[in-house]
Amino acid sequence: MKALIVEDEALVAKDIGEILSSNGYEVTAKVGSVEEALISIEQTVPNIALLDIKLNGAADGVDLAHILREQHQIPYLYITAHSDRITFERAKSSQPAAYLIKPFKEEEVFTAVELAIFNHLNHDRSLSTKECNQEGWRVNQLRAYILEHLSESIKLGDLAEVVKMSVYHFAHHFKDQMGIPPYQYVINLRLEQAEKLLITDLSIAQIAFETGFSSQSHFNKHFKKKHNLSPAAYRKLKR
Question: How far is CA 15 from CA 82, 140, 224, in A?
Fold first, then answer.
């Protein structure tokens, strides 16, 4: 694991570096300003950054924290002597993975680093779960819309409107998430419903119309492609 130390007190930075090295971490750099930290990150991306709030230069550790979170997704913790309420509230707004007050013991530094990495990983998992839930909700919305309008002509723009996306972004996003383009998903749902109707007394022409195919021959073509059977043969097999 690689760690970046951003601390303007040389002795403190040296102590932290030795603590991390003795616990198996590779220290990528020990720097004292935001500018130096960003240059270091361009050269070697760390797995964790330890930030002092008060740094050399106009920008401080909180400013750097926002950059790390928004542009690099690097987890970070604060190491600082500033424990007053105002400083704490400002630091808290940047959502650090941990917070350590000087002076500190060796085990406190190691524990804080491990906790920061653990919290960051759990946060990523929570976001992934949320994204998966959102995708599931969108698919459910689309499925409900398609089934409700199954006998109609369903255009790409109609589906994009359901999930409030542009046609371009919807088409690309849907294929990335589902592995098939939207039109194929619509055809699959039409065929799924047609299979259920084939065990009823509806004619094949009626089924083609009810499930939104432009013609019986169009229905036959897609059905045979999926089942290697014509709708009539499938009906015989299922009855």
Answer: 19, 55, 72
* Burial degree of 20 (CB within 10 A; 0-12, 13-18, 19+): buried
Query: How far is Cα 111 from Cα 215, in angstroms, rounded to an integer?
Result: 68
Give pLDDT tens digits for 209-235: 999 999 999 999 999 999 999 999 999
Length of the chain: 239
Per-residue tokens: 170: 């919807």
Q: 2-124 — its CATH code? A: 3.40.50.2300
Please state, in angstroms and rounded to a whole number, the distance separating the CA atoms of residues 32 and 135.
43
Amino acid at 108: E
- The residues near 194 (Cβ < 8 Å, ≥ 6 apart) are 207, 208, 211, 219, 223, 231
Strands 48-51 and 2-6: parallel
pLDDT, tens digit, 9 for 90 and up, residues 129-187: 444 445 565 788 888 899 989 899 999 999 989 888 888 788 888 888 888 899 999 99
Q: What CATH superfamily is the domain 149-238?
A: Homeodomain-like (1.10.10.60)
Cα distance between residue 30 and residue 17, in whole Å: 8
Return the sign of the alpha-carbon dihedral for residues 226, 227, 229, 230.
Answer: negative
Q: Tokens 């309008």 belong to which residue?
A: 149
Break the chain into its structural domains and give their ranges.
2-124, 149-238
